[in-house]
């Protein structure tokens, strides 16, 4: 059954991807700004003949439909295109940036989940206590704080003031030779961007889990467990948390999609060499092949993440599988 | 003509000047023998798209490529030509022949000897197809380019062109390796991302999104190679992070534009920080309000005069640009050759501006205009807001249309604007960086660095053409002076200020700015105290 569902989801995903490709292509070409003019400007300016020549070289002189047909044909051959501006294959540019983005966003996501679930669970279990109120105030503040501001405050406090962590970049100028030292170096650079990105999402999860824990705590099966004398810790761990955590999966699948699309602000403030910054620079330069390549890649990742989440949902809560089967 | 350019005196340097005895040890340090070794850390902002200097003339490409490539000449801060790949040069009396003797011991970073064939290939082939500015210059003025043996090159002009001696700066004619580029598609040549030059530093690696690494080229032609072992460019996209990087002593130098002027002012107050506005004499960036003269209200001279009177250029220079600008008086910067100070002045007078708008005969929708700011940071934003406010007070109905750089470039390049902010590099001579904004033959689309406003005056065309061809300095000055006076009377553009952008570095770093292009140059003389 899971196999069939997987194939259905995959089929739907491919249709969505086609829609994404068409929409991206249309929107990108509707935006003001001519890549040929920008390129000519970077080369020191040029007359109309020079710009027209560039437009031909970039394939922008053809009707939009023809351009899309060429783009779609290239995509079917697995070719994401060529960045005229960077003089490189788009695929290689994206592949180069994905590891940094995944490292940052998955770490941030892990931080968000851990902190969010722990805070939410404690708040929900000890609801209306001082601890609950304190945790909820913290999460509210984190939720309301603009991400870039939090990032800058982190830099000021933990880097400039305390000197604990590097303020930006993914590795030091003098990269250590030993693999372990290199890993530690990257880890030190990762702390501030991952926490500043993760704490925002942690706040969301904390509030969600708290509400869910309170809701599940009042369910009949929890009351029964209490009546049977099951210890409180076991009730929380086995009965409450496992059920309360389900909404987190739904929300997480949305968030993780957003995150793999690149954390543009965080990557910019911390000079993190990820896909978000690649996309941002490409948009500013109207580098169409790169913009389309990044959008399509992130669209694909979002679809894959959603399929995986669907499957995970069934593992965490077998009732879903059972209901689907019926 | 360059006497106005001075080192910006910060509070700290003023104090040091007053306490001369205390400064002596520091001067002693600065004049001490240079120390070899060390790594200089700079910022690449934004990350260059390519390092092929002949193909991309964005500032970050010049900044990085300027350490790797060289041209035939470089220029002192008073714009005197100095040897680089050319050891000497001569100009015939009729101004038609330029002969350059080349270095005989220069080599490319892959070990291939540098010869006149490289210069001829670059100037007569590669740059003619890839460098629009050189292409225009070569097609207009150059009859032929020939090698005379392995180490001399002769440029023969169609007609005299007195600015030609300024066409051999790094961003105008970077010499590229013939053996690397000949017979290839220049734009896709792999050397664009792993460049091979003749400069004092050679390319080592480019970690995209993070850093670019250069190291000293040991076989450099100069008896004294670069002092530094390595130069590293860090990619730091966020302005606040660049500020932090300098404060944390992670980077050694901030080039003009790395931080906003008010940040530069604050950073320069530290005891060990030096700020200079020297090093932009060749480019002499000149800011102006571009008015679209093709339609109302700016096809009306009174409205253009009102713009000049409504904007307080002293206020902008001192309060929005924090003193890192000085009011412009006309189309030519006071740092550029043939500057004419004696032009019609337009003192700040808002009442007069109102009167001119009232007398213009325009009203209602004719006075409704949009202002397209230059999206280059907060100081430009504030300048646009101030100008919009002033012009509104004068009687125009101004709204600001915010766009990104691409949108701005397109608006100007396709003439779809009313008012826009812009600035230009003057390249030391009016024929190179000034005339292009006013010649009727340069009313072209496709670039924001042309006559985008649509100004046309046959007399100005004649004056610029005759001045460019003149080999008599006095006559050239007379012609350019007359052209400037006409342009100012016509208010062809609304000149606002000459930019005096700061370069900031710590006092342990020496010889940072040594020529008219400042940190864009090779930095081979730069050294760090141990």
Can you offer a commentary on this structure?
Chain A: It comes from Pseudodonghicola flavimaris. Chain A: The chain crosses the membrane at residues 12-31, 98-122, 134-160, 190-208, 244-270, 290-313. Chain A: Residues 98-313 form the ABC transmembrane type-1 domain. Chain A: It is a multi-pass membrane protein. Chain A: This is ABC transporter permease. The complex is a heterodimer of chains A (326) and B (530). Chain A starts with a helix and ends with a helix. Chain A has helices spanning 2-30, 35-42, 48-58, 64-76, 90-125, 130-144, 147-161, 179-217, 220-227, 232-244, 246-260, 264-269, 275-285, 288-316, 318-325, and strands spanning 82-83, 88-89. By secondary structure, chain A is mostly helical. The model of chain A has no long low-confidence stretch (mean pLDDT 85). The longest helix of chain A has 39 residues, at 179-217. Chain A is 79% helix and 1% strand. Chain A folds into 2 domains: 18-79, no CATH class; 91-325, MetI-like (MetI-like fold, Orthogonal Bundle), CATH 1.10.3720. With 530 residues, chain B is α+β, with helices and mostly antiparallel strands. Chain B has 3 domains: 4-56 and 199-281 and 501-528, Periplasmic binding protein-like II (D-Maltodextrin-Binding Protein, domain 2); 73-181, Dipeptide-binding Protein, Domain 1 (Dipeptide-binding Protein, domain 1, Alpha-Beta Complex), CATH 3.90.76; 286-499, Dipeptide-binding Protein, Domain 3 (Dipeptide-binding Protein, domain 3). Chain B has 16 helices and 21 strands. Chain B has helices spanning 11-18, 20-30, 59-68, 116-130, 132-141, 178-181, 239-247, 261-267, 301-310, 313-320, 350-359, 378-394, 405-413, 430-433, 458-469, 473-490; strands at 39-44, 73-75, 81-83, 86-91, 97-102, 142-147, 152-157, 201-207, 211-216, 230-235, 253-254, 273-276, 286-291, 325-327, 368-372, 397-400, 419-424, 494-499, 503-506, 509-510, 527-528. In chain B, strand 2 (73-75) and strand 3 (81-83) form a beta hairpin. The longest helix of chain B has 18 residues, at 473-490. Chain B is globular. Chains A and B meet through helix 2, helix 3, helix 5, helix 7 and helix 13 of A and helix 5, strand 10, helix 7 and helix 13 of B.
